[in-house]
Design a protein that fits this description.
It is a single chain. By secondary structure, the chain is mainly α. Strands 1-2 form a two-stranded antiparallel sheet.
Length: 141
């Protein structure tokens, strides 16, 4: 049986280059198919091969589950995984913020303690100077 298409390549290889479809495109195909748009129209508007790529994502039955449903479930699973990753990252950030807050509070407490100690030393010096002046004034009288 003769091939349906002739190879365009001049090196004699008849292999066709494959193009990966992103999840966003697959989701678009599923949504458009749900609205009743035909695989041919979807394929033309997205620049995909009309039969193969689009029908993989549209309503072909496979073991009771359509490719559309498989794609939707795959997208939902990916979304759940991403959501879980984001939740984990948020929890890590919250822990870091708590630790940073504890360190900040400890630094503030240390600085406040040092300032208090310095203030008390200054007060003690002032008190000693006042006592000396008072004693000096009392002895000179």
């Amino acid at each position: 049986m003769a091939p349906k298409r002739k190879a365009d390549s001049s090196d004699g290889s008849a292999s066709k280059k494959r193009k990966a479809i992103t999840m966003e495109v697959k989701l678009d195909i599923v949504k458009r198919s749900d609205k009743g748009e035909t695989a041919t129209n979807i394929g033309r508007s997205l620049g995909l091969s009309q039969g193969e790529d689009v029908q993989k994502c549209s309503a072909e039955r496979d073991g009771g589950r359509t490719e559309e449903r498989k794609t939707r479930e795959s997208l939902q699973e990916q979304w759940k995984m991403e959501r879980n990753k984001l939740t984990e990252e948020r929890e890590k950030l919250e822990k870091l913020r708590e630790a940073e807050s504890k360190v900040y509070r400890a630094c503030l407490q240390e600085k406040a303690t040092k300032m208090q100690e310095e203030f008390e030393r200054e007060m003690e010096k002032d008190r000693a100077q006042l006592l000396e002046k008072l004693e000096a004034s009392m002895t000179s009288e």
